[in-house]
Amino acid sequence: MRMVIENVGKKFLDTKKNEVTALENINFSIEEHEFVVLVGPSGCGKSTLLNIVGGLLSPSKGQVYFEGFQEKEPNIGIVFQEIALFPWRSVLENVLYGLEEKGISKKEREKKGQHYIDLVGLTGFERAYPKQLSGGMKQRAGIARALSVEPDLLLMDEPFSALDAQTRTIMQEELLTIWDRTRLSTLYVTHNIQEAVYLADRVIVLSRHPGQIKSIIKIDLPKMGRNQEKYRDQFEQYSNDIWNLIRHDAQEALKES
């Protein structure tokens, strides 16, 4: 499986009916098993691009397509920044939602649901409701729900941004462990440069409006254990390089906020 974003642009009308170009001339691909991270200043179109890839928005020009699919439509799983669990459904019932929509038999979907609940570390909380869970546990449930449909591509839109620093670090480590077991092709959006370097095979840096690709940086570090002391200098160099690409745009975005 290979996903291709080809010459994608997006325009929309703002509240004053003026045409705004959000994205322009976006070209990259996501290879099978690859973890790609989008970073950039506020207003650069990261979430818009992710929603186009997920089929939630249509591009104004260009196309998004998958190579290597003849027999079936590709499955896409999405984890949003807002923890979009149904409050009236238990953890297990939330995780099973996508499988129910696909018409999977009750026995098979409960088996798959339990597998992914176990995978994200929520064993024992199957019958708990969202109001009984911490922020990190809610996001794990959201990840399990996205994984349960066994997606060909996983999309994640700043999934840990609302969590406190310690929980966020733990969730980053757990996400890498999950990726190591599933090897899912992933497109991940974040504002956090250190998070991008920690997770990514490649980091795609976008400019502010209109969002265009400034640089694509391959992170040449082992996928697991990048936070070890022996990689600290390389890790910080990647972080500095990305920040230097973003700095001016971020300062300009701050003036408009």
TrEMBL record:
Residues 3-233 form the ABC transporter domain. Pfam families: ABC_tran. InterPro entries: AAA+_ATPase, ABC_transporter-like_ATP-bd, ABC_transporter-like_CS, ABC_transporter_ATP-bind, P-loop_NTPase. It comes from the Bacteria. The keyword Nucleotide-binding applies. Keywords: ATP-binding, Nucleotide-binding, Translocase, Transport. This is NitT/TauT family transport system ATP-binding protein. It comes from Cytobacillus oceanisediminis.
